[in-house]
């Protein structure tokens, strides 16, 4: 709802508008909440964890989905994702390719692509800091301090040595969402087609009981873009400032 889906949530948090840049203008797109327990998904049994189980569960979903909609069997398809899907996507592809080698599946996987993948904590963190330094967001002195403990293998403190301020570290030239003293929110500046406050609109929309009922989700679900508790359990070494990168 914030990027490539067919709809965007309007600032009122109640209505939708078409996304003219949606991927489904060119292809059929399935959005899979993964692993079980993410978003509105749930399990009646204890929710398993681990990347291997996630890959197998995703494969089983595809298998059953294609049985339910056989007209899509044999069509070219691609697997995509962002952030921690840098692990989920290739591991699901590996399951499909291994089964295809054994003749156990004929899924016509053509390729994979990942955006901003979270692959390795040290390299991801260091690369982000180097980008901020090379673009003048942090000083030479701070960069020197970062390089000391990082290069010696003592990664603790590398991410805590500065405050990047009110910028979007994913796009340092983009406007950010600002909250006024009265609680209202607004973009710091205008950029056509981009609203940095859209996360708040989505949060309001998906926590609307009428929306949850219409989506056949379990009602009274406390939906959030990211679960800090879940993610800290998975990435215990990540600093709070990096939470969003693992969403």
How would you portray this structure in words?
This protein is an alpha+beta fold. The protein has a domain at 32-116. It is 34% helix and 10% strand. It has seven helices and six strands, in the order E-E-H-E-H-E-H-H-E-E-H-H-H. The protein has helices at residues 51-68, 85-101, 121-134, 140-151, 198-206, 209-214, 228-234, and strands at 7-9, 16-18, 77-82, 109-115, 177-179, 185-187. The strands form three sheets. A two-stranded antiparallel sheet has the order 1-2. It has a two-stranded parallel ribbon with strand order 3-4. The chain has a two-stranded antiparallel ribbon with strand order 5-6. Strand 1 and strand 2 form a beta hairpin. The longest helix has 18 residues, at 51-68. Residues 230-246 have low confidence and may be disordered.
